[in-house]
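Issue: ligand-bound run for guanosine-5'-diphosphate - logging full I/O for the record.

Environment: standard queue, default settings, no custom constraints.

Inputs:
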Amino acid sequence: MNIHEYQARALLKAEGIPVPDGDVAETPAEVKAIAARLGGTVVVKAQVHAGGRGKAGGVRLAKTPEEAEHVATSILALTIKGLPVRKVLVVPAAEIAGEAYAGLIMDRETQRPVFMVSPAGGVDIEEVAATTPEKIFRLAVDPRYGLLPHQAMGLAFRLYHDLKQVRAAASILERLYRAFVRHGASLAEINPLATTGDGTIVALDAKMVLDDNEVERRPDLAQLRDPSAEDPSEVLARESGLSFIKLEGNVGCVVNGAGLAMATMDLVKYYGGEPANFLDIGGSSNPEKVVNALRIITRDAKVKAILFNIFGGITRTDDVANGIVTALDQIDVGVPIVIRLTGTNEAEAIQILEGVGMTALNDMDEAVQQVVHRVGEAA
Ligand code: GDP
Ligand code: MN
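Outputs:
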C-alpha cells in the first residue's frame, strides 16, 4: 500500500528523524492560512502516490500566503502520472546546500532489507542509478541484528565528510531502519536528505510503501489508506475480494487460483500475447465475483479480448458460467470472450453457456491460442 508524503513524514518524525514542520490541505484557502501561520517562504507539494512531482510542477515555492494560495490552485488542478492531486502539503522552504539520497527496500534477491544511499540525491536519482551507478552504495541488513551502529556510520561516511554530519546521518539511517521494520514497509525513502545552509541534515521528502499483509493485520496502518488516491480498479478489486494486479498488455484474464493465473499469463506470453492483468477470482464460486471481475477488466480500454480460465475443483464451473451470463447481462463488454473451463459440473456449465449462444473450450492451450489470435484480429 502506498501512503502519502505527509503520512510517511509523520511516521519518520515519530521515529525521531528531523522533518520540517508543515500541514496538509485540500483547498487553496487552507493553504493560504497554513502559509500565514508558518511565515516566510513555503513549499507547496502535491500529495499523490507518485515520484517525480518536482519535475511535473507539483512542488513549488511561494514567498507569500497569497502566492501560496495561487500556487496551490494550480497544483490542485494537476494530474501527475495519471493521478489527480487532491491534497497538498505546505512546509517552510528550506535553504538547500546539498541533496543526498537514503532509501531502504525489501530485496527479494538477498531476502533482506537493503539500504541504498547516494551523495548525489535530488530529483535525478533514477538517472544517477542508470548512468553513474558507482555513486550509489548498497548494504544488505541482517534482520536478526538490524542495522548495527558501525554499519550506519559506514553508510553515513559515503554521504558526508564532516563528522558531526556523519553522526547525524547515521542516526537518521538507524531510525529509518526502525521505521521500516515497525510499519512493515517494503520501501522507505528520503530524497532529498538535505543539508541546509547551517549544515543541519533534514528529511525534505519521504516516501513509504507498506506491505499489504502488514496493513491487513494493523488497523493503525489501514487507516492511512487513501482510496481516492488509488487506482479505481484496484479499489474495486479489493472491495470485491479479488486479487488483481494491472499489467500493461491487452489480454484480460479471469482465472480461479493464483497458480493457474500465473500459468495462464505464462501461456499468453508463450503464444505471443501480453496479459492485461493478473486476476484470481478465488476458490469459492460466487457469480458476483465474476461480475466484478468483468467490471474491473473492461474499465481498461487497452483490453482487446478476455480469457476465462476456470479449473473446477471447489469452484463449481456452472456457478462461474452463471456469473458470466449475469455479468454479460449487466455489462457491455465490447470485446471477444474466450472461455476455457473444465472440472466440477462442467456439463452443466456448458449447457448454461450454450443456452445464451456461447461456447466453452476444454483445452487450456487451445483457449490461450484462440484469445491471442482474437487480439491479433482486433489490432
Ligand atoms: P519529488 O520530485 O516528488 O521527489 O519531490 P521532492 O519533495 O523531493 O521535491 C523535489 C525537489 O524540490 C527537491 O529535490 C528539491 O530540490 C526541491 N525542494 C523541495 N523542498 C524544498 C525546499 O524546502 N527548499 C528548496 N529550495 N527546494 C526544495
Ligand atoms: Mn523526492
